[in-house]
Design a protein that fits this description.
single chain; alpha+beta; Cyclophilin; eight-stranded antiparallel sheet; globular
Length: 186
């Protein structure tokens, strides 16, 4: 299953992970099919971290799931917050609604990589996971705090372009970065 997030700055394509996060994928895809995300903005953009959208008020304080209430986190050791990951934004455990973010960090600080190596597989950071973070970047401190339900497959230039926009108060872009639509391909 795939999703194409079409923006006023270009398109980004994603592979979705129903095998790891079935509720998050169902929530995102149904919202997309119903046009929930059409015309919304990326209301929070932090270069070398992430871009966030999915709030109908554009403030970061709103939005709800397809069930009308928050839904639980879905964590998997096989779905990490690598560069380009599509993850649920939340305000704490089991508070997922409609907001999502795309990881834009291209590097993991070396001191964090060292800590992850020390923690090791028992703590959730196998050699393969650490090696992948070294290779592609990401935000490992968000693992097991934010549900990862997809990854970018095309449009990293658009992701990086959005991350570079000028922002103002609360990391909100000065000029709106608009989600024109989200197309789901099954």
């Amino acid at each position: 299953m795939k999703a194409i997030i079409k923006t006023n700055r270009g398109d980004m394509s994603f592979e979705l992970f129903p095998q790891y996060a079935p509720k998050a994928v169902e929530n995102f895809t149904l919202h997309a099919k119903e046009g929930y995300y059409d015309g919304l903005i990326f209301h929070r953009v932090i270069k070398d971290f992430m871009i966030q959208g999915g709030d109908p008020t554009g403030t970061g304080m709103s939005g709800e799931s397809i069930w009308g209430k928050p839904f639980e986190d879905e964590f998997s050791v096989d779905a990490r917050n690598y560069y380009g990951s599509l993850s649920m934004a939340n305000s704490g455990p089991n508070t997922n609604g409609s907001q999502f973010f795309i990881v834009q960090a291209k590097e993991v600080p070396s001191h964090l990589l060292s800590q992850m190596e020390q923690i090791g597989a028992e703590g959730g950071f196998s050699k393969e996971v650490v090696d992948e973070y070294k290779k592609v970047g990401g935000t490992p401190w968000l693992d097991f705090h934010h549900t990862v339900f997809g990854k970018i497959t095309d449009g990293t230039d658009v992701l990086d372009d959005i991350a570079n926009v000028k922002t103002g108060i609360n990391d909100k872009p000065i000029y709106d970065v608009v989600i024109d639509s989200v197309e789901i391909i099954e």
